[in-house]
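I have been asked to look over a protein record a colleague put together. Alongside the sequence sits a line of tokens, each denoting a local backbone shape. Please read both lines and tell me whether the tokens look consistent with the sequence. I do not need a full report, just your reasoning and any doubts. I have pasted the whole thing underneath without changing anything.
>
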Amino acid sequence: MIDSPSNPYVGPRTFGRKHKHLFFGRDREAQDLESLVLSERITLFYAPSGAGKSSLINTRLITDLQNSGFSFYPSARVGQTLREDITDIDNIFIFNLLDSLIQGSRKKDTLN
């Protein structure tokens, strides 16, 4: 039986940190993004859906910065659907960001 080569494409999912060895060809973008993050207090990284933003952050930016001694909060999303019991929110984006960070922190605590 002939071994078939492994497919480096993870499908429509985001490349995670464990896929770093499969993610290639974005060296210049990774260097530019890392330079911006290191030189600016706030960096807005914007591109159309499916362009590879999360994959670039997960496989290159976070691991490269961690290797330099930086630590990170968990990933957070701002565009979530509100639960039905929550009705009085002044800023849905800030609420979703904070809720996402809290949920990420709870997941991390249960893994330890």
Q: What stands out?
A: The chain has two domains: 1-72, 73-112. The helical segments are 27-39, 53-67, 92-111. Residues 6 and 98 are 39 Å apart (CA to CA).
